Design the sequence.
């Protein structure tokens, strides 16, 4: 292949790189960043592309959503992580097309030619054919989602504080979480702690005992990927925090302020001001884009089926890693789970493999080390399954904390998180309880398919109930209680004008 100019026609920082092979990495998550670092010493020029300029530590998004940490504590600028590498160019934008025959990707209005391509664009949330529910129950895949959830939780508490009707206050203090996996359990525990402590200490009109947090899951237990003993321990811990569970339940319908759940005993209708979705994921749209270009095989979930070196069949120059790939070349034959650990290991392996190809060295074999799974449930309580070693309670929390700090890519954030966790344990306070930003403008976005650049939406004022909460309050007052949630609630009508545009 004819050599192209370096990085969008820019001069290379080193003359030796002018004609070096070009490696394009799409996605700056766990896999993309680790692949980039693995190529630091290789004689290649690397272009890292992402629609956001930061690496997001997704496992801790629930802590942003519940005010324990700030957004900057779980996000690190990509240029800070890899921008100093002499052979790396970081570009902000979105890959919109791919031509595998010409070995080109379409980047905005530009075209980049690659010698090696690494697709690491991750996954987004899925509503199983009911995308209209996204408005009522935001997911938790990107930073804006966590901020929106935090806003909804805090705003519901603020509204309850000034609502004279006791039944209406209970409605505003009710939270439904769809999904009983690690994210759902962590969100339930953190939300319970937030509401109990904040209400007891800072909200004078609210009774923490009136709060309801309900976890809905289609299975018969929480954390089904973990051993039953840890699942039982997790349920016991959450129940001690006042969290309710509804098993063998599937959401049938949803509207502002109400969720209808199908169960073996019939449908149940739950009124709740806040609903959070943690039930499912889908791979990035680039999997289908790639399949349209080279007719590669996808699994039932839309993930790209890859070879043992994460390459696509008949296209060794294309690697797919992380949540976007279906890798079944494990000792058990089961696909790699969509978690930070496997993504990080896969990204590092692919980077080292390409480096070995460039240098003529022996190529490595991928061996996945299963670190296990874990979930934190309370300030100092967690469950962890580490290769058969089971931990719960405080020891589980210590293991969980150590693992998450180890995977955190930025050293500064590691120390910040440790300090904030210790502060929260000792003081029972949270450091990021701010109501900021325009509400409800990010719910239609997703990590896999959100547009670039993000368009700011119009919405109600920051001090007023946002469109989602306003709709839930209107539903409650008209369909449940028959009386306004609070006197003067109609004053919010003007600020909520055009709310459909604000929350879609």
Sequence:
């Amino acid at each position: 292949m004819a050599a192209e100019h370096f990085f969008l026609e820019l001069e290379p920082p080193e003359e030796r790189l002018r004609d070096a092979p070009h490696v394009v990495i799409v996605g700056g998550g766990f896999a993309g960043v680790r692949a980039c670092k693995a190529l630091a010493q290789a004689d290649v020029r690397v272009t890292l592309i992402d629609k956001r300029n930061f690496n997001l530590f997704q496992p801790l998004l629930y802590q942003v959503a519940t005010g324990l940490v700030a957004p900057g504590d779980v996000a690190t600028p990509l240029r800070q992580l890899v921008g100093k590498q002499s052979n790396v160019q970081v570009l902000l934008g979105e890959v919109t097309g791919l031509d595998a025959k010409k070995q080109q990707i379409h980047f905005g209005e530009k075209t980049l030619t690659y010698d090696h391509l690494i697709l690491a664009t991750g996954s987004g949330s899925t509503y199983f054919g009911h995308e209209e529910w996204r408005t009522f129950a935001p997911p938790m895949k990107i930073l804006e989602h966590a901020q929106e959830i935090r806003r909804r939780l805090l705003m519901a508490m603020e509204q309850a504080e000034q609502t004279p009707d006791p039944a209406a206050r209970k409605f505003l203090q009710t939270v439904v979480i769809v999904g009983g996996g690690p994210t759902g359990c962590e969100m339930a525990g953190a939300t319970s702690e937030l509401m109990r402590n904040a209400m007891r200490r800072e909200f004078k009109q609210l009774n923490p005992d009136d709060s309801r947090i309900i976890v809905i899951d289609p299975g018969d237990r929480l954390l089904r990927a973990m051993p039953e003993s840890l699942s039982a321990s997790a349920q016991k811990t959450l129940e001690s925090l006042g969290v309710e569970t509804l098993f063998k339940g599937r959401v049938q319908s949803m509207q502002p302020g109400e969720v209808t759940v199908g169960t073996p005993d019939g449908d149940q209708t739950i009124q709740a001001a806040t609903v959070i979705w943690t039930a499912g994921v889908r791979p990035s749209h680039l999997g289908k884009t790639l399949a349209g270009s080279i007719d590669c095989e996808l699994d039932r979930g839309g993930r790209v089926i890859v070879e043992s070196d994460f390459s696509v069949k008949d296209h060794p120059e294309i690697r797919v890693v992380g949540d976007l790939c279906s890798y079944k070349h494990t000792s058990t034959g089961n696909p790699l789970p969509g978690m930070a650990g496997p993504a990080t290991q896969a990204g590092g392996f692919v980077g080292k493999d390409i480096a070995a190809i460039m240098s003529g060295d022996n190529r490595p074999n991928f061996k996945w080390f299963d670190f296990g799974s874990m979930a934190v449930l309370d300030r100092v309580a967690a469950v962890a399954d580490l290769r058969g070693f089971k931990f719960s309670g405080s020891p589980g929390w210590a293991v969980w904390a150590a693992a998450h700090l180890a995977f955190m890519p930025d050293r500064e954030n590691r120390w910040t998180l440790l300090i904030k966790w210790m502060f929260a344990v000792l003081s029972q306070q949270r450091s990021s309880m701010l109501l900021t930003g325009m509400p409800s403008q990010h719910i239609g976005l997703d990590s896999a398919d959100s547009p670039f650049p993000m368009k700011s939406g119009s919405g109600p004022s920051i001090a007023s109930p946002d469109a989602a909460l306003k709709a839930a309050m209107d539903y409650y007052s008209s369909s449940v209680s028959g009386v306004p949630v609070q006197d003067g609630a109609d004053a919010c009508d003007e600020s909520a004008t055009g709310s459909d545009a604000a929350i879609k």
